[in-house]
C-alpha cells in the first residue's frame, strides 16, 4: 500500500488508500505529484452513493469541495469496452456512470495502462480537468476576503440581546442541556456571542465552518477576545491539533478525524448551522464527544427543508431579522418592485430550487439584462449596489452592459484569480466600483456595510438563499439610514413563484419605496402618508409615484405543505409498503390534499394529518408512532413474510454486531451475509434460490451491500424501524425501538429468525 507523506516542521502527516488497490494507490501517487500530498486528503476513497434505482454503489474517488462533487473512476481496459466485457457488466457500468452524472457529479476516468505508461499525460490531464476548477481550489483561494472592521476586546461592550443569549446558554447548561442553537440575524455579532460563551466555559474549543473566510473571521475573533490562550487553525496545509482553540474548515476536520481523539474538545461551535445536516457535519458530530455543542445561524431553515432543530434540539436565543431592525441592530429595508415580461411558468423546479439550465435560458437574455441597467440608471443615482445574478455568465453579461453605459461595474466569481477578485471587492468597498455583479459567491461570509442597494435579479425559491442575500446589505454604516431592495418580478405560476421581499415577510400591500422592515411604528406611519398620496422623505430622491400601489399574491405552497405529510412520510406512518401507497394513489384510492406540479411529468403529493388517519381507518392500516413502533416491530418479526432468507439474516447480523446505540457498520452486515451463505455452500446445503446473488457465487462486497439495502432493509426502512447513514456506512435500529428492546426480546428475535430460516430452507428444498 502506498503511503503519502508531507513534512511540516517536525510533524509528519500520512495518507493511505482505504481501498488497498494498487491501481488506486497509483492514482493517489500521481494526484499527489500533481497537487501536493496534502491535497490527497480531499480524496474520499470508495465513496458510497445510490444509483437512479436506489442500488448501493461506490465511486473509486470523490472530491467534495462545496456543493459540487467530482467523481473519479480507475478502470482496466475491459471495464467500458463492450468487446471485452459482458453485456450485463457493460450496461451496469453505464448505469453507474449515468447515475453519477444525473446526481450532478463531474465524472472523470483513467485506465491503469494510462497511469502506468503515460503518468505525465495523466498529471497534465488532472491539472486541466480538476486543477482549474474553482470548486477544487483551496477554499480561501476563491472566496472573497472579509473587509469588516477590526474591534478591540477591551473596548467591546455586549449588546443587550447578546447578554440575554449568554444568560440563556448558562441556564441551559445548568439544566444539563448539552446542545443548542443560537439564531441571530446576519450582522448582529453571533460569533462574538459564541466566543464569549466558550471563553466563559473555559475548556478546549473546536470551531468549524464551511468556508475559509468564516474560519479566518472566527480565528481573529478568538484571538481578540480570548488572547490569553493559544488559537490555531485546521485547514488546508495548516493542521494545528494542539491549540486550546482550533478553528477549522469542516472539510479538513471531516477528512482528518484520525488526527483527533473523540474527547479532545469540551465545546464545539458549528458556524452556519443550517448546513449541519450535510454529511460532512454529521460525520464530525457523530465522532466528537464534547460537553456542549452550539450551532450558529442567521437562517434556521435549510434549503432542502430539513429542520435543524432535529439536530440542535433547543434554541438558546432568537433574534430574527425583523426584530434586529426594530431595535436598531440592522438598518431598515425598503423595496421597489420591477416587473419584467419573462415567462417562468415552464421552468422546472423542485421544492427549493429551479433547474439552473432552464433558469439561465429564461432570464439571461438581453432584454432583461438591459432592464436591470436601465433601472439602475433611472433610480439609483450612483449608490453602491450589489446585483445578485443567476450564474457567472449572467453576472458577466450584466456587468458588461453597465460598463457600456459608462458605469464602473465588475462581475466577481470563483473563476477569478484571488488577487484580482479581492482587488475588485476592495474597490467596491471604497467606492471606486459602484456596481458589483455576483451569483452565489457572496451569499455567505462577505459583507460590505457601505452597500446601499441590492438588486434581486436572480429568482430563487429558497427562503434561505434570499435571506442570506438580503443580509449582505443590512449592516449599519455611517450615513446609511436604510437599504433599498429592487425586486425583479418575473411572470410565474402559483407554485413556482420565487421569493421576494413581500413574500418573505408576508406583506400583501406594496407601495413603491415603502418600508418592509423598520423600527417600531415606522411602517404604520408611512402607510398613512401613502394613503394621503404623499411619500416618505427617504424616497424623495427616487422617481416613484406615491400612488403606485399593488396587491401582492403571497401564496406560499411550501409553508402550506410544511404542515402536511409527504408521500414518503405517509409510507413511514402506516404499516404498508411504499409500492402499495404508490398503487393506491395511481388508482385513485388515495387522493392527496395538495399536489404540486414540479415539471410536466412530476408532482409532489401531500396529505393532511386528518386525511392520513381517515385512510388508515378506511383500509385498516395500523398507524405507526413512537409508542407502538416497538410492538409493531416485534409483531413484524413474528409474522415475517419471506420470499427470500434475507430478512432474518439481516436481523441476526444487526443484533450480533450492534453497538450500545443500536448501530452497526454496513461492512459488518456484509461480512455476516457472506459468512452465512458461504457456510451453507461449504456444508453442501442449499444456499438460496438460483436467481439469488449468493447462490450464483462470485459476488463482490458491493453486490452484497446492494442486495441488502434494496431488499431486506427497505421494508424496515419504509416502516421507519431502521435507517441507513450513507456517509458513515452505518445501519441503525430506530432509537425508539432499540431503547425498548430488552435482552429477552433480542434473544427471542434471534430464535424466531433461526426457526424462520429452518422453515424457509425446508420449503425451498422440496
Notes on the structure:
The chain has 766 residues and is of the alpha/beta class. The chain folds into five domains: 3-136; 160-319, Rossmann fold; 336-556, Rossmann fold (3-Layer(aba) Sandwich); 563-618, Multidrug-efflux Transporter Regulator, Chain: A, Domain 2 (Orthogonal Bundle); 629-764. Helix content is 40%, strand content 19%. The protein is built from 30 helices and 29 strands. The protein has an eight-stranded mixed sheet with strand order 10-9-11-8-12-13-7-14. It has a seven-stranded mixed sheet with strand order 17-18-16-19-20-15-22. Strands 3-4-5-6 form a four-stranded mixed sheet, with helices on both faces. Strand 4 and strand 5 form a beta hairpin. The longest helix is centred in the last third of the chain and has 22 residues, at 743-764. The protein is globular. The model is unreliable at 1-20 and 134-155 (pLDDT under 50).
Per-chain topology:
Layout: E1 3-8, E2 11-16, H1 22-35, E3 43-50, E4 56-64, E5 69-75, H2 87-102, E6 106-111, H3 112-117, H4 119-131, H5 160-174, E7 179-184, H6 190-201, E8 205-209, H7 212-225, E9 231-235, E10 238-239, E11 245-249, H8 250-255, E12 267-270, H9 279-287, E13 292-297, H10 309-312, E14 315-319, H11 321-326, E15 333-343, H12 356-363, H13 366-380, E16 385-388, H14 392-404, E17 409-412, H15 418-430, E18 435-438, E19 453-456, H16 463-471, E20 483-491, H17 501-504, E21 509-511, E22 515-517, H18 522-531, E23 549-551, H19 557-562, E24 565-566, H20 567-573, H21 578-586, E25 594-597, E26 603-607, H22 609-618, H23 629-638, H24 646-657, E27 663-665, H25 666-682, H26 693-696, H27 701-710, H28 712-718, E28 722-725, E29 730-733, H29 735-738, H30 743-764
Parallel strand pairs: 5-6, 7-13, 7-14, 8-11, 8-12, 9-11, 12-13, 15-20, 16-18, 16-19, 17-18, 19-20
Antiparallel strand pairs: 1-2, 3-4, 4-5, 9-10, 15-22, 21-23, 24-26, 25-26, 27-29, 28-29
